[in-house]
Amino acid sequence: MKTELKALSSTSLAHLSNDGVFLLFSSLIVYYSEPSLGLNITILGYFATIYVFVSGILSIPVGRWSDSGDRDPELMSLGILLLAISLVTFSIPFLFSSSMAILTKYLVVGLGAFILGLGQAFYHPLGADILRYSLKGRDSSFLLGINGSFGSIGRAVILIIVGIMIVDYGAFRGLFYLSLYYFVVAIVIYIMSRNLRKSETYREKRMEAVIERKELVRMKSLPGVRGFLAILTVTLFLRSAFQLAISTYAFTYIDGIFKSSFLSFLFLAVALVTPIVGQPIFGQLTRRKGGDFTLLFAGVLSLLAFLPFLYFSQNYVLSLIFFSIYAFGAFTGFPSILGFLNQKIPKEVSTRANTWAWGIGNTVGGAFGILIFTTLFETLKISMELSFILMLSFLVLSIITNIMIKPFAKKLPSQITQ
Fold first, then answer.
1. Where are the domains of the chain?
2. Which of 278, 220, 212, 193 is nearest to 9 (CA)?
3. Quick count: other Cβ atoms within 10 Å of Cβ 35?
4. pLDDT of residue 1
5. How far is the C-alpha of 329 from the C-alpha of 303, rounded, in Å?
6. For helices 102-120 and 72-95, what crossing angle results, to 10°?
7. For the chain, which terminal residue's Cβ has fewer other Cβ atoms within 10 angstroms, N or C?
């Protein structure tokens, strides 16, 4: 129980901090594009694509580093440390807004986006795996839900803190002060988690690695396993293409309607409170009904809530209500996706499977969605509202492919589905 509590507390703090900057860049786009800095919103949109893409691609070697050694606490802390460095980098153009050349501003912001992507690559595959091996074989879906709620708390609370600090202290000081928290919390997370290891001895860990390599070869010859991971990854790719595009431009959309950065921060922060409750609920739903059902339910709910959000977008209260319902379904993927993999995939390849589903499906899919939306809105000059509606096609396609997951799951070898 002590190990489980330590695992839950350290990973929850890491999840809170990691997801706390999830919408940071999308909110900073508004400030970077103001006349005082003069950065082009189209280029900033492509920077958002780069940051998400880097996060997804790097999660693959992160999973490999985790599987080949017993360094999860170090890697998890490193991810948070990189987030701290990205915050410092993002603050620099605000300090030298009048004296810094425009090209230098782009280079600094681009570097900050790249470092942010590096930092975001670490937590999700590592946190899920730490919880899994700390539970010693038991279903971790419910604890993933509790852990995921802390990620939702981070998205809501840290976002509103950023808004308040920027209003009170200015963008440079606000971001710099926030970076100090991240430097400290990276150290705290390592201290809390440093004794959480996959095996008692390095020799045992090496044996697990040998087993994993053999299992990977065997899994490649099993169409059921490959098909299951493929259809799940495609579903997550399509779903995330829609969700990340919305997340990146939601702040800009709301700010353009209500002409107030503080009201926009408040809108998103309040809406993102609903996943705090939703994460444990979806974790329990995954445990009882399976991840395929939970993902399908979340997708349909997101679709039914997003359309009225657009329809009532000029009404602050009604649009907030429907966006909150949308967020309840959309931002609960952590227990649904990783809990589902926990139910279906053997422990020898758990981190690698988490990496493909979350890194390639959920994250690279999001980068693709941001790229498509930026092209629609900025390059083709399609209105933001119509661009949102066009992006809904990705969500609809994800619902269709989601229905196909269950037949593929039934083809899995019995030793994996048990």
1. 2-417
2. 193
3. 5
4. 55
5. 9
6. 160
7. N
Closest residue by Cα to residue 79 from 151, 157, 17, 158:
17
No. of H helices and E strands in the chain? Answer: 21, 0
pLDDT band at 139 (very low <50, low <70, confident <90, very high): low
**Amino acid code (one letter) for 414:** S
pLDDT at 417 over 50: no
Alpha helices in 221-364 (DSSP H): 223-258, 261-271, 274-289, 291-311, 316-330, 333, 339-344, 350-354
**Which sign does the torsion angle of CA 342, 346, 351, 356 carry?**
negative
Q: Smallest Cα–Cα separation from 263: which of 333, 339, 317, 220? A: 317
CB 290 within 8 Å of CB 340:
yes
111-128 average pLDDT score: 90
69: left (phi over 0), alpha (psi -120 to 50) or beta: beta
State the average pLDDT over residues 86-102: 91
Tokens representing 273 are 């409170």
**C-alpha torsion angle, residues 334, 337, 342, 345 (rounded to 10):** -150
Residue carrying structure tokens 């539970």: 135
**Domain 2-417: what homologous superfamily?**
MFS general substrate transporter like domains (1.20.1250.20)
User: Which span out of 2-6, 182-186, 378-382 was modeled with the highest average pLDDT?
Assistant: 182-186
Rounded Cα distance between 68 and 64, Å, is: 6
pLDDT of amino acid 346: 61
8 Å CB contact between 182 and 81: yes
Tell me the C-alpha distance between 338 and 358, whole Å.
8
Task: Give the DSSP per-residue string, 179-198.
Answer: HHHHHHHHHHHHHHHTT--S
The identity of residue 167, as a single letter, is V
Is residue 259 predicted with pLDDT exceeding 90? no
